[in-house]
Amino acid sequence: MMDGRLRNEEVARRIGHNVFLARRRAGYSQEELGKRCSLHRTEIGMIESGDRLPRSDTLMKLAGGLEVGAELLLRGIEWIPPGPDAGGSFGIIPPGLRGG
Is 92 or 44 the better-scoring residue by pLDDT? Predict the structure, then answer.
């Protein structure tokens, strides 16, 4: 469907990039982070590469393991409410345009 909506792959890539940045800031390897949040290092790698879109419980584990708020891992992603002709969709917010 070509209605301008973003696919889950784009959201997965954004979350993955956010996890990668937070992990690097914390100074953890993928294996260390996996141990801290009870996930296998390959799952961390799949999330960071955008190959896997994490469920909410996995996001909470990652946030806890990184000692950050889950909102940090969702930074740059917004929900665009449905319009008259289409359902809602995710949107990616360009860096520097988010208020607050």
Answer: 44
